[in-house]
């Protein structure tokens, strides 16, 4: 019987089907074979067990849209294969659907599905599903087959028919890829990391199936074994590996094939070594030994956590010990039969090690062979060697000599030895690099004047006596003048000229000496001498500076880059280990990013950043033992002069304004930290901006336009930079932010306000430069002392009447310089200098008051509002009424914005002119006046006491 639920029964609309209304157990003689709910448009509820066990109801059930509730077990054990739910707001009882025939309960969309997962209306939650659009793509994300509809978490063989209903297609096949597929071994996967593909019975776990095409296996080959005698040079085990999609690990993108190597071996001592890395195609061995080295090669796909190929191979490594090169040297081949064997040493160039006479040998008269044994220092790579030397034993007494050495250097022959009568010996003295021969005495007599090219010859020695004759030699560190003489003695070389081995070795020896000397002290060599030397050093064929001579940014005196060469590098250039030493300078046009722009604008108020930005990088490239390494140079030991073109696209300067160009530098060091510097222009051509710099990264040409009427003293102060401590250019090349200027302006006012004998105590915190205006205030009010404490060093103590005279062009003084200078000044004074007070503490000297002023805690603060303490507070307990009007600030000469003064050649650390310090007669006069005042005051008190006494008596 087919059930048709009408819209109205007896004129009453049908709104629900009651509990167990058509429960099959209530109708034993009737079998319901169909259910039509299409007419029941007002149906909203289906009761519990309404169609329970109606197995004749087969096919699909589509609930009307108006259904709001379905009771528990309402369709349980019915014969439906697919049930289509109507909407999101329907309430379902437990196991509203279920039974063996049910394949899926289909929600209209994912949101309905998510709402029902907490309390599924079906007896088994895995039967609940919703439709998705399933895409087929390749690994690049491109469409590989036509998309189709599927049911989430249902087998792929569940297929949607044209009428939007679902059926199970037993013969469903997955789509095949296009004809251009490179491999027949393809598979579809929901997860790219899956090693197996899906089948028609696989559940739908996503909305994208990806076509995976296995890569071809890589081609791997293994080189030969190592079988050689030790020669100090490396031998290599090699592996070749290739693949069409191979890329080095550093440049690989996801999907590329990369190779990983694991090398392991156990040497003869039992020590196990393991080295592994990407692209480690070879392994070098230098030292003697015999063992097996295993290499494991793995291939993987970048971005996927799996290995697609692995193989290993065992290499044989056999490096035999070498025979040492031994040339014995004896102090004499004639020996006394009553003495001992002569001193035995090795000739220069022999294999490093020790040589000794074999024990138990007796000296006999006449010529005989005496045996020796050489033990190499590197006994892992060289064998022990024996040999003999023919000596003549004589009965005459021998001339005994003992050589003693102090300092760093060698004497040959050395030690203790004896000579036969009439023999001659040549002594050679060789100082170590950075040292020189100081004194040579023989039996206490100075013989240094008898040396020829550090060689002394002792001729025709007499017969031996009872004493030992002593040759005493000392070596000391070279002086600056000695090093300059070495430089001056060298021939001038030019790039491109022919340089012979002797000249090249002489220059490299001088470089080694200079660098070793710098390890012990800072030699005082004229700069022009050093530049001349390093320019000639560039003529050596193995040394080169690669610079673009036609570039838009030009550089001068780049030979100074060779200051960076170390003594060890010079040694290896001399012995041939290093065959190429190149410093490359790369200049590229650049643009500043927002972060860099912010850094630049913090350097200079109202700075305009032009299009002239350049990224300048320096690299040191060294080829040593056929291996080339490249090292970035972030700083240079010597400042270089850079010239930048004035950008052509900048706006013209407005009427009434003056334009000044600068260069902002954003420097990155080896720890990836960035600092910023502002460089002034020393070029007046108007076409280029020229600076001195020893740090390299990003440079940007900027400018500042200021009104021509603006006070030059203030303008120059604005051009100071307090954030970088960079004294690379002239003293006016850095920018003082407004809050730092405000602080020092308050110091100036405080000095002018103080009275004779007062002391102004300044806590500069992190500021490390004092404007010249402060020194000008001390000159204007000479009887005021100044103490400046700062975080970077010792306090600066400036006694009264010791202000420095004005120096033309001076804008600021480094506090480190003033601290050192005034330490000497205070040591020369007969009157003790004022002592620095603690921060914020009150103090009152014998002759005046102390005033305190402190800088903000950090010079990186974006804004600064001085507090009463910052503006200067009197710390003495006495009170003093300030004058109603302060003395106007004295304008000190400074550089104008018209044309920046070029950087001086001398460094700011040079001696500054100081007023002559003499014991002033004024101090004596003041002392006498004070004593006289005290005596007069006591006399007045006595007279008043006498008058009062007389008055009492009269009463």
Automatic annotation (TrEMBL):
<feature type="region of interest" description="Disordered">
    <location>
        <begin position="833"/>
        <end position="917"/>
    </location>
</feature>
<dbReference type="InterPro" id="IPR032675">
    <property type="entry name" value="LRR_dom_sf"/>
</dbReference>
<dbReference type="Pfam" id="PF13306">
    <property type="entry name" value="LRR_5"/>
</dbReference>
<keyword id="KW-1133">Transmembrane helix</keyword>
<feature type="compositionally biased region" description="Basic and acidic residues">
    <location>
        <begin position="710"/>
        <end position="719"/>
    </location>
</feature>
<keyword id="KW-0472">Membrane</keyword>
<protein>
    <submittedName>
        <fullName>Leucine-rich repeat domain-containing protein</fullName>
    </submittedName>
</protein>
<feature type="compositionally biased region" description="Acidic residues">
    <location>
        <begin position="877"/>
        <end position="889"/>
    </location>
</feature>
<feature type="domain" description="Bacterial repeat">
    <location>
        <begin position="399"/>
        <end position="449"/>
    </location>
</feature>
<feature type="compositionally biased region" description="Low complexity">
    <location>
        <begin position="836"/>
        <end position="848"/>
    </location>
</feature>
<feature type="compositionally biased region" description="Polar residues">
    <location>
        <begin position="855"/>
        <end position="866"/>
    </location>
</feature>
<feature type="compositionally biased region" description="Low complexity">
    <location>
        <begin position="720"/>
        <end position="733"/>
    </location>
</feature>
<feature type="transmembrane region" description="Helical">
    <location>
        <begin position="926"/>
        <end position="950"/>
    </location>
</feature>
<feature type="region of interest" description="Disordered">
    <location>
        <begin position="710"/>
        <end position="735"/>
    </location>
</feature>
<dbReference type="InterPro" id="IPR018247">
    <property type="entry name" value="EF_Hand_1_Ca_BS"/>
</dbReference>
<dbReference type="Pfam" id="PF18998">
    <property type="entry name" value="Flg_new_2"/>
</dbReference>
<dbReference type="InterPro" id="IPR026906">
    <property type="entry name" value="LRR_5"/>
</dbReference>
<dbReference type="InterPro" id="IPR044060">
    <property type="entry name" value="Bacterial_rp_domain"/>
</dbReference>
<keyword id="KW-0812">Transmembrane</keyword>
């Amino acid at each position: 019987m087919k059930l048709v639920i009408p819209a109205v029964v007896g004129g009453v609309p049908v709104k629900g089907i009651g509990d167990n209304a058509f429960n099959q157990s209530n109708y034993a003689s009737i079998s319901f074979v169909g259910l039509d709910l299409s007419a029941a448009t007002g149906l909203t509820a289906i009761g519990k067990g309404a169609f329970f066990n109606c197995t004749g109801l087969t096919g699909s059930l589509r609930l009307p849209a108006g259904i709001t509730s379905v009771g528990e077990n309402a369709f349980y054990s019915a014969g439906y294969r697919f049930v289509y739910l109507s909407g999101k707001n329907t309430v379902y009882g437990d196991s509203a659907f279920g039974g063996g025939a049910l394949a899926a309960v289909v929600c209209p969309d994912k949101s309905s599905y998510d709402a029902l997962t907490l309390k599924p209306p079906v007896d088994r939650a895995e039967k609940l599903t919703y439709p998705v659009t399933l895409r087929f793509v390749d690994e690049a994300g491109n469409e590989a087959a036509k998309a189709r509809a599927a049911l989430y978490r249902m087998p792929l063989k569940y297929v949607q028919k044209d009428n939007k209903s679902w059926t199970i297609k037993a013969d469903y096949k997955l789509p095949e890829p296009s004809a251009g597929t490179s491999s027949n071994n393809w598979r579809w996967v929901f997860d790219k990391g899956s090693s197996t593909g899906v089948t028609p019975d696989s559940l739908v776990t996503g909305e994208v199936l990806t076509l995976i095409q296995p890569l071809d296996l890589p081609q791997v080959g293994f080189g030969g074994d190592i079988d050689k005698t030790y020669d100090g040079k490396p031998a290599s085990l090699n592996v070749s590996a290739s693949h069409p999609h191979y890329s080095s690990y550093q440049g690989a993108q996801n999907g590329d094939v990369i190779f990983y190597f694991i090398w392991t071996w156990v040497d003869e001592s039992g020590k196990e070594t393991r080295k592994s890395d990407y692209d480690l195609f070879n392994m070098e061995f230098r030292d003697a030994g015999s063992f097996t080295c295993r290499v494991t090669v793995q291939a993987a796909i970048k971005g996927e956590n799996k290995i697609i190929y692995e193989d290993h191979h065992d290499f044989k490594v056999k490096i035999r010990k070498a025979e040492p090169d031994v040339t014995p040297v004896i102090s004499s081949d004639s020996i006394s039969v009553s003495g001992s064997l002569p001193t035995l040493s090795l000739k220069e160039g022999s294999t490093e090690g020790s040589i000794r006479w074999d024990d138990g040998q007796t000296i006999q008269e006449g010529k005989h062979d005496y045996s020796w044994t050489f033990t190499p220092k590197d006994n892992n790579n060289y064998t022990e060697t024996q040999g003999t030397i023919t000596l003549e034993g004589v009965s005459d007494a021998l001339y005994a000599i003992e050589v003693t050495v102090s300092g760093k250097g060698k004497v040959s022959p050395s030690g203790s030895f004896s000579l036969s009568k009439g023999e001659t010996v040549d002594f050679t003295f060789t100082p170590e690099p950075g040292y020189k021969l100081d004194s040579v005495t023989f039996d206490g007599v100075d013989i240094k004047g008898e040396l020829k090219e550090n060689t002394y010859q002792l001729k025709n020695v007499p017969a031996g006596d009872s004493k030992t004759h002593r040759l005493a030699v000392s070596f000391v560190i070279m002086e600056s003048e000695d090093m300059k003489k070495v430089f001056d003695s060298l021939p001038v070389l030019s790039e491109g000229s022919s340089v012979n081995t002797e000249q090249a070795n002489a220059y490299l020896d001088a470089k080694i000496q200079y660098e070793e000397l710098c390890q012990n002290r800072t030699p005082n060599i004229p700069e022009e001498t050093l530049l001349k030397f390093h320019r000639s050093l560039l003529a050596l064929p193995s040394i080169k500076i690669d610079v673009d001579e036609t570039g838009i940014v030009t550089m001068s005196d780049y030979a100074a880059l060779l200051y960076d060469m170390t003594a060890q590098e010079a040694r290896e250039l001399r012995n041939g280990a290093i065959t190429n030493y190149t410093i490359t300078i790369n200049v590229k046009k650049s643009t500043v990013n927002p972060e860099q722009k912010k850094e630049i604008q913090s350097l200079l108020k109202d700075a305009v950043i032009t299009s002239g930005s350049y990224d300048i990088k320096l690299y040191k490239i060294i080829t040593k033992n056929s291996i080339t390494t490249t090292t970035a140079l972030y700083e240079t030991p010597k400042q270089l002069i850079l010239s930048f073109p004035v950008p052509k696209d900048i706006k013209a300067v407005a009427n009434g304004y003056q334009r000044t160009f600068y260069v902002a530098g954003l420097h990155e060091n080896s720890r990836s930290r960035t600092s910023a510097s502002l460089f002034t222009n020393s070029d007046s051509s108007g076409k280029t901006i020229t600076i001195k710099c020893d740090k390299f990264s990003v440079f940007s040409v900027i400018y500042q336009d200021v009104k021509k009427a603006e006070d030059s003293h203030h303008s120059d102060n604005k051009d100071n930079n307090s954030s970088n401590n960079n004294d690379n250019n002239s003293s006016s090349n850095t920018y003082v932010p407004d809050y730092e200027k405000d602080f020092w302006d308050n110091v100036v006012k405080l000095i002018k306000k103080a009275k004779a004998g007062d002391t102004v105590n300044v806590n500069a915190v992190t500021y490390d430069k004092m404007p010249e205006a402060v020194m000008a205030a001390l000159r204007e009010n000479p009887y005021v002392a100044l103490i400046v404490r700062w975080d970077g060093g010792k306090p600066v103590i400036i006694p009264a009447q010791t202000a420095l005279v004005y120096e033309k062009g001076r804008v600021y003084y480094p506090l480190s310089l003033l601290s050192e200078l005034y330490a000497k000044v205070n040591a020369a004074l007969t009157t003790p200098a004022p002592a620095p007070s603690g921060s914020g503490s009150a103090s009152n000297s014998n002759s005046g008051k102390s005033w305190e002023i402190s800088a903000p805690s950090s010079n990186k603060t974006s804004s600064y509002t001085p507090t009463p303490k910052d503006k200067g507070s009197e710390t003495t307990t006495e009170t003093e009424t300030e004058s109603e009007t302060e003395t106007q600030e004295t304008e000190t000469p400074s550089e104008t914005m018209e044309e920046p003064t070029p950087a001086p050649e001398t460094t700011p650390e040079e001696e500054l002119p100081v007023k002559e310090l003499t014991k002033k007669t004024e101090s004596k006069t003041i002392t006498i006046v004070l004593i006289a005042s005290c005596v007069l005051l006591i006399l007045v008190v006595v007279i008043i006491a006498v008058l009062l006494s007389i008055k009492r008596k009269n009463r």
